[in-house]
Amino acid sequence: MRFSSRPGGGAARGGARGGAASVRQRHGGKAAASPSAGRLGRRFGGAAGRQGGGAAGAGFTSSFITGSVSGCDMKRRAFPAVECSFTWFVLPFAVAPKAPEAGSRSPASGGQAWGRRDQLRSQEQFVFEKPSEVERRVPEAGVIDKPGVYEISTGPTGVSRIHLVPGFIDSEQADWMFEQLLQDIPWGQRTRTRQGKGSFEEPRLTSWYGELPYTYSRITMQPNSHWHPVLTMLKEHIEEFTGHTFNSLLCNLYRNEKDSVDWHSDDEPSLGKNPVIASLSFGATRTFEMRKKPSAEENGDYTYVEKLRIPLDHGTLLMMEGATQEDWQHRVPKEYHSRDARINLTFRIIYPEPDRVWK
Description:
2 domains, single chain, Jelly Rolls, five-stranded mixed β-sheet, ALKBH3, 359 residues, 24% strand, disordered N terminus
């Protein structure tokens, strides 16, 4: 049998006969000449296809396949090709449509998938979550226990500086000076008043030396020009070491661990701007604590400010200079363990000031 690549020609008619025989052999019936095959033939099979019938459709199919396998051994592959062609056209009309596989993108499955997604979106609800606040940690207090000059802060008011000098007075001299001052200084306990909170006794003993009175926390200490010889010697020694001069001295006696002084700054007007304070300690070691004043945004809250702890041993000198009194506070807190007596001498300069009127 000869095959031609022209659709609808004689080879088409011969192919139709061979195809019909092949189909009858496989299905046990007549050649598959159906109207649908005729339509396919009329559409693609040329003049023979337009005359109608299954032969025309078969003619197109055999010609189409013959053209696709040109260049091969036609004699050996002719009939299998024709049989294959009929199977390709006939079976789709006889077999039920195959169900779409899972995950296929057919229109029906796609529509169902989009429908399910739309349904899920409609069921979703918007939930507002408040942004988490930034966690702030309370800073640990720093410890200064080595000799040296420390710039503890820098700000618009200037540099806050402290100078720690352990052993400024050697231990043997410090021992007899402590005993002498403990006995000879006229110690007294002052009563302080708080507006709307009544009065209370200060938890320590004090004494004042200087040509001018000194007022702090609504307490005025009267002038006392009778300096003890040991105090005069210590003042001159500190002035020589630091290069600063002093004209006044506040003495504090902490009798035991229960005595203390609360948070404060030595920033009274009579001390002037950026006063220099020289603090000399004798006796039991007590912890001198400092904390930085909070910024305006903190509204007076000291929780997150910088803090320092400075142990002041027997014979230790601590200098506070620059903006320390303006930017920092200090205290000597109560202790939970037994403590012996401690004397603290704070040398300073006092300037005359007009009489104060307390409100």
